[in-house]
Amino acid sequence: MTVTADDIRNAATLLEGRVLRTPFVDAPMLSRTLGCNLVLKLECLQHTSSFKARGAYVAMIALDEGQKQRGVIAMSAGNHAQAVAYHAQQMGIPAVIVMPAQTPFAKVARTRSFGAEVVLEGRNLNECESTVADLIDQRGLTLVHPYDNELVMTGQGTTGLEMLTDRPDLDILLVPIGGGGLMGGIATIARDMRPNLKIYGVQTELYPAMKMAVAGEDIVCGGETLAEGIAVKKPGGVTRTVVSELVDDILLVHEQSLEWAVGALVEQQRVVAEGAGAAGIAAIYQHPRLFAGKTVGAVICGGNIDPRLLASILNRNMASDGRIARLRIDISDEPGMLAAITTSIGRCGGNIVEIYHQRLFYDVPAKLAKIDAVIETRGPDHVDEIIADLRAANFTVNQLDDSTGH
C-alpha cells in the first residue's frame, strides 16, 4: 500500500473517540523570544503523552483475530511502547515491549502500568531488533513497528490533518524525525492540503540518520542525547521515500539547543516536553533566519520526560542565563562572618538557594574559611551588583565558572 491523503482522512474517522484531538495553541511568549508566530500542536497531552497513540491504534485495529489472540510486540524508547501497551490493554491483546536498557524509568514504569511485559535490551532501538525477532519466532507475536509501517504512518498523519484544518494560515510545518513515521504522515496530508507549504524535519546532530539516508550518505551516528525518542540509527524504508520526496529540508540541532527548548517551553508556555518533543523549538532557536516573521506550526510530539532530568535542565538553564550563580567568598573564621554575607546578599535582593561552609580543606589556612553560596538572581547584572556589594564589605569574591556554563 502507498499512503494517500484520503487514507489519512479515513484514519481520522477511525480514531474518533480513541485518541484526543489535541490543542493547537498560539505561543505568544515564545513567539516574541524566537521572532516568529509560533503555534504548538500539543501531542504531549495525547493519551500516553505522545502522538504514538494514533499510529498504534490504526495498526492494531487491522489485526485479525488470530494475531490478536497471540499478541503483539513492539520495540520502543518509550512513547510507542506506551501507545501499544495502552491500546493492547483496551483491546484485550497481550503485549510485549522491548525497550533500550537506558530508557528513562518513568517511561518503563508507565508502560508496565498498562499491563505490558517489558524487556530491557540494548542501548538504542536498532539494538533491540534481534531480541524482537527471537520473541516473534518463539511466541508467534505480531510486530507493531514504531515507524516503518504504512498503517502507523497513516495514523500519525492525522496530526497534520488537524493542524492544517485548525490553522490554514501556516507558512511552515516543523516536525521531529526519528524513524520518520510522524513526518511521513504529516508531509503526505500537508502536500495534499497545502502544496506550497514549507515542511522542515528536525533531528539531533548525534542522530542525523534520516538526513544522511535521504542524501545517500553512509549513516554514522551515536551518543547520549536528550532526545532519545528520535535517536534512531536506521530510518524506515517506507518513511524514507516519503520524506525524500515531500520534505523541504531536515535541520540538525545540538544538545544545548534541546536543553534550552525544554526549559523555555516550561518557563514561557507552561508546556512540559521531552527532548524529542522540544526539537522543533530547538530548531527555531538554532536556525532563526528560516523562521523570522513566519507562522510556524511545531509538533510537540511527546511529554514523557523523567522528572529529575527536567529539574536538572531547568536549573542548568537558570545557571546559563545567570539567574542562578555560585559565588566563592573568602572569610576569616570568626563569629558574624556568615551573617554579614547573608545580609549583603539579602540587601541586594538575592535569594540564597544553598550555602556551604568550607574550613577543613588543606588549601585553606587554619584561620580562614571559604563560603560557597548558590544564589538565585534576576540575571547577570544582578549577580554583578551582589558581588560589588560583598566586595564593598571587604570580602574576596569569585564567581565559579561551573555556575555560568563557561
Description of the structure:
The protein has 406 residues and is an alpha/beta fold. It has 3 domains: 5-51 and 152-316, Rossmann fold, CATH 3.40.50.1100; 53-143, Rossmann fold (3-Layer(aba) Sandwich), CATH 3.40.50; 323-401, 2-Layer Sandwich (Alpha-Beta Plaits), CATH 3.30.70.260. It is 43% helix and 19% strand. The protein contains 16 helices and 14 strands. It has helices spanning 5-15, 28-34, 52-61, 65-70, 79-91, 105-113, 129-139, 150-166, 181-193, 209-214, 237-246, 255-269, 279-286, 307-320, 337-347, 380-392, and strands at 24-26, 37-42, 72-75, 95-99, 117-120, 142-143, 172-176, 198-204, 249-253, 295-300, 324-332, 351-358, 368-376, 396-399. The strands form 3 sheets. Strands 1-2-10-7-8-9 form a 6-stranded mixed beta sheet, with helices on both faces. A 4-stranded parallel beta sheet has the order 5-4-3-6, sandwiched between helices. Helix 1 (5-15) crosses helix 9 (181-193), helix 3 crosses helix 5 and helix 3 crosses helix 8. It starts with a helix and ends in a 7-residue tail after the last strand.
